[in-house]
Structures are given as structure tokens and as C-alpha cells.
Amino acid sequence: MPNWVDGHPAESLSIKDRGLAYGDGLFETIAVRAGRPPLLEYHMARLAEGCQRLGIPLDLQLMRTELLAFSAGLGEGVAKLMITRGEGLRGYAPPPVALPRRILQSSPFPVYPQVNGVEGVQLFPCVTRLAEQPLLAGLKHLNRLEQVLARNEWQGSEFAEGLMRDQSGRVIEGVFSNLFIVHEGALITADLSRCGVAGVMRAALLDSARAQGLKVEVRDIPFEDFLQADEVFLCNSLFGVWPVRSVTGHHWPVGPLTRKLQAIARDLLDI
Amino acid sequence: MPNWVDGHPAESLSIKDRGLAYGDGLFETIAVRAGRPPLLEYHMARLAEGCQRLGIPLDLQLMRTELLAFSAGLGEGVAKLMITRGEGLRGYAPPPVALPRRILQSSPFPVYPQVNGVEGVQLFPCVTRLAEQPLLAGLKHLNRLEQVLARNEWQGSEFAEGLMRDQSGRVIEGVFSNLFIVHEGALITADLSRCGVAGVMRAALLDSARAQGLKVEVRDIPFEDFLQADEVFLCNSLFGVWPVRSVTGHHWPVGPLTRKLQAIARDLLDI
């Protein structure tokens, strides 16, 4: 399957790249169906925000054109896009004129157990807590050691995802997905202004839910609210929506709002 | 100047490397004088601790041999060592059998203004605050976006370094150095169990100071203690010790303990 660096087939990158040295960059994990990324506008919007906040002068029009060409060639699968600030001098200071690098990698669409979507998943309660850094919160940047540590806390297939909380114990997200709870008919997802990754499926579901007149809240989720939720589900841009059925002995039913959002996600992803 | 990947001359790395994808690795910035790294044992000890805490199965004996050979070839300069967890499958989960990658890059010894060491430096008060993550605190890992943001807050040569505080405002370190204060004859440096990078020069100075019977404290440094300090200085493994003479209108004299530690650092670095 093809991989590109700056628009050309390539498998390697300079060891001087700041993406490697400092994680100085961003990424997007992009579902590609029938030669197109169905969530293109959401990915481009997040990338634009990330580049703006990190001060990376990416040519967004070129990036869009390149991603579309890559997706057309890929057909079906996952396009992983990484943007770095490019090469730099020694030291943390960004170069006066940065030449951002665009890396596109392809992989087959992952095969998840069907039961995850039908009956729901069990969450592993990760000990790794998310640090609070408002300047980086929400971004899908390349500094992901917390997720590596958290994902390494469990092995095997009993747990499909892990629950991540912040240093104060609030419920934030999964290791590779966002989390929603349902309480008295309202759809609630964590405020990500201190930590967490603002996923594109989360954004798309929030938009769709609002458009359908559902009550939506983006706010802090204390652990007690999570335990007392009527429904809990996860989402990301590859698997859509998975109901959550349990964590450490606590159980939730798979409820009607979860099923409604699951159908919306399927429509969005064309699966 | 030479660069090596896994012991062989190389300038590039696979785009599938987890160092790029997640910053899943560690680094060391190593002064090399007359073909040898004077702080070798401190670098190897920190690398060992980092690998142990991140679960990276690095062959430390091989690493030491390789670093010594690289240093001998380099003669005078800086050896930047990066260790990554190597290539992986898609997703955060570390591969069951990781093959860590060893990257060595050389650069000339940096030339700092002599006045920095003689008269001291002015600190830029960084707005970027360090997030608190005990699981990663102290490590020199590859997730360094906070330092990139902080270093980008000032340009030009008026400020030689920036002051970094934690989310609660405590004084932690410089952007690329550690910080000490002197109070009533005691040498005090920040406790780095919640955030910060535990520099090798900091460790070497702490050892030397203790060996000479100086009073040493590793503890939290409230901003008020910093402002009321008798002396303030910075250290790292390239420049040794720089006195701090001011930050935002507050001034310190260059005192006798700073000069004492500066001489120790010069001896350690052979400069």
C-alpha cells in the first residue's frame, strides 16, 4: 500500500525532522471509503486549528488536494496523515522559516469484532491519568506518550478500550476514542479545554445531534456522573460508535440514544 | 559530521517509527570533549531509568559501546542520542517484541556568548506552564511540544533562557536547562516528580555539592522563594552554569555559591 512524503512515494524521513526530535507536529487518522474521506471537512478543520495553534505554516489547499489524490489511489482503507514542522537547527526554537512536511501512510481498514458495536464493550480503567495542558488540549499532536502508556496497561481482547481520566479524576475519553454519556435524555461529552483529543467523529456527532434537536452538553464529567449515566458510548472516525456496557463491575444498558448516534455514525462513515 | 542509525551511517528513518508517530522514545544531548563524553555515566544512568519507566528494552551495553565509538570519531562536539521503540503496527499499543532504534547525530559544540557565564543571563518569563504528569516527569522523552511552545515565546538575544513554572506557578526549570536557587547557604533545586526534565548536569552538581558537604535541598520552589533567593543559576550539560541576573524587573547578584558550582561544572565538562 502506498506511502507518500511531500506528495511523492517514500518510506523514510530525515532524522533531523522535528516530528521525530520533539513530536513537533500533528496527525489525522482518516477513514477512506470508495476513494474518498467521508469526514474530510472535519479533518481539514481540525488540522487547520492545530496548525494555527502550533504556528505551523501548512499550505492547507495543497494538503487537501494531496489527501484527495492519496485517497483516490487508496480506494478503501485508512490514510494516516502526519504533519511536522520539518527540519530544524539544534534546539527547541522553531526555525524562522519552517518548511512543514506532509506524510501520508496507508493501511487496511481495521477489522473490529462485530460484537463491539452490537452488544457494547468493556472498558479497562487506566491508571494513567491525562495531564492538564490547556495550550495543547484538544489537538491531535504527535506527543502521545500518555496514550502509549495507557494502551500498554492491558493486553488481550477482554477490554476493547481504556477509560482515561484527568489528574482530578474527571472522565475525559478513551485511549483512541471519545466518550459520551446520556443523562435524562441529554447527550454529554467532556469539555476538552484542559486535556484530551477532540476527535472528528465527536465533532460530527455533536453537529448531527444539534441539527436533530437533541439536547447536547459539553462540560466536565465527574466520575459519579459517569457511573450514574443512563447510557455510555465511545466514538471515533474508524469504528463509528461502540456502546459501553461496563467498567470495573459497573454496568450500563445499551440505550436508544446510543443506537440513534450509532446509526448517524454509520451514515457519516458510509458503513 | 557523522550520523548513525543502529550503528551505521544513515540520514533517514522509516516513517513507521514510533518515535515519529508518538514521540515514543527518549533522548540525550551529550557533550563530547577529546573523543569522550565527560558525563557518560550520568547519561547512561538516565537512559537506563527512562527505558525502564517506558518499558523500552534497550541493550544498554551495546548503547554504551556505540556511543563511545561515535564520540571517538566525533572528537569535539555534541552527540545527540535518540532512542525510539522502533517500528510498530497501527495504534498506540507497543508491539509485543519491540526492536528499539538507536539514532546518533553530531553537531558542532554550540558557541554561547561568554557574557552569559561571566555576568549572568536574563530570563524570559514564559507563559507556557508545564503540565503535571508524574508518569513522565523527570524523563528526557521525545514529547517536547511544551518546550517548543515556550522557546517560541521570545526571539533575539536579550533573553538567553526562559523560566518555566508548573500549572500552580511553582518554579521548575529553564526551557533547556535546570535551575537552582541559593537561600541562606543552601543549594535548592526543584523536585521533578510531577514535571520537568532531570538534567544530567543537575544530577552531577547535586552529587558534587553533597560530596563537598554543601547543604542541598530538592523540594518545591514557590515563586516567592525564587524571588527572595540570594542567588539563582541555571545549568545544563553543554554550557555548564550560567548565573541568572534578572527576570521581569527582579535582580539577583552573582554570588559565591554560583561561582563555586560554575567551577565544578567546568571541571566536569573539561572546559
TrEMBL record, chains A, B:
The keyword Nuclease does not apply. It is an enzyme of class 4 (lyase). GO terms for molecular function: 4-amino-4-deoxychorismate lyase activity; pyridoxal phosphate binding. Its EC number is 4.1.3.38. GO terms for biological process: 4-aminobenzoate biosynthetic process; folic acid biosynthetic process. It catalyses: 4-amino-4-deoxychorismate = 4-aminobenzoate + pyruvate + H(+). Keywords: Folate biosynthesis, Lyase, Pyridoxal phosphate. Pathway: Cofactor biosynthesis; tetrahydrofolate biosynthesis; 4-aminobenzoate from chorismate: step 2/2. Its cofactor is pyridoxal 5'-phosphate. GO terms for cellular component: cytosol. It comes from the Bacteria. Involved in the biosynthesis of p-aminobenzoate (PABA), a precursor of tetrahydrofolate. Converts 4-amino-4-deoxychorismate into 4-aminobenzoate (PABA) and pyruvate. Belongs to the class-IV pyridoxal-phosphate-dependent aminotransferase family. Homodimer. This is Aminodeoxychorismate lyase. It comes from Metapseudomonas lalkuanensis.
